[in-house]
Amino acid sequence: xxxxxxxxxxxxxxxxCKPGRAAEEERGANPESWSGLQGRLTWEEAxxxxxxxxxxxxxxxxxxxxxxxDAYASWERGAYWSASHAPGSQDRALTFLVTDLLGVxxxxxxxxxxxxxxxxxxRCIQAVR
Length: 129
What we know:
globular, single chain, 3-stranded antiparallel beta sheet, about 130 residues
C-alpha cells in the first residue's frame, strides 16, 4: 500500500471524516449550488424531482454548511427535506427548519425527522463530483 494512502486512511479513521465531506461542505455554503424552491413534496417526490434536474437532495452536511454560511437566509420559512435518514428509521428523513427569529432567518437540523409521506419544502443541490 502506498504510504500516502495509508496516512490518508488513518487520518480519515481518526477524525471520523469521509471522502467527499469537504466537497459537501463547500457546495452547501455556496448559495449558487442550491436550486430554487421546488414546492411542497413528499420525500420520494423530492428525490425524483432533484434527479430530473440533474441534481440531488441535499444531505444533512449540506444543510449544516448552509447554516454556518447563512446560505438559506432568503429561503421560505418552513421545513426542507434532506437525503439523510433519521437515526434508526428508513421511514423518516432529517429536515432543515428555517424560522424567523426577531425578523432574522434562523436555521437548524431537526434530528427527529419527518415521515417521508409528509409534504415539505424541497430544494436540490449540485451533485458532488
